[in-house]
Specification:
The protein is an all-alpha fold. It contains 5 helices and no strands.
Length: about 100
């Protein structure tokens, strides 16, 4: 569990140093929700039925924007190859990077 938290802490530190990426995803999420809401129209019953799926779809689209940046630096310096070859639980490490 300490390796999981170390990966999350390291990737969060790198993300705050590079800056701008998280803010871009938040703006994309907000704009996507607003555009979907405008497209649905003012009917409250339809809006109530589609609110949860709309939020999830916008969140997944915003997450897709940042997925390339998660592994880009690791790919460039070769540490992604080491991570794949030596990791016993690769899914846990990928989850830690995605959470960060």
């Amino acid at each position: 569990m300490t390796a999981f938290l170390a990966i999350v802490r390291h990737d969060l530190m790198l993300a705050f140093r590079s800056g701008g990426g998280a803010l871009q995803c938040v703006f994309f999420f907000a704009i996507a929700v607003i555009i979907f809401a405008i497209a649905i129209g003012p009917d409250r019953t339809v809006m109530a039925q589609l609110a949860a799926p709309l939020l999830w779809a916008a969140a997944l689209l915003a997450t897709l924007m940042s997925l390339e940046r998660i592994f880009q630096a690791d790919f460039e310096d070769g540490s992604l190859d080491v991570l794949i070859e030596t990791s016993e639980i690769l899914e846990l490490r990928v989850l830690a990077k995605a959470i960060a």
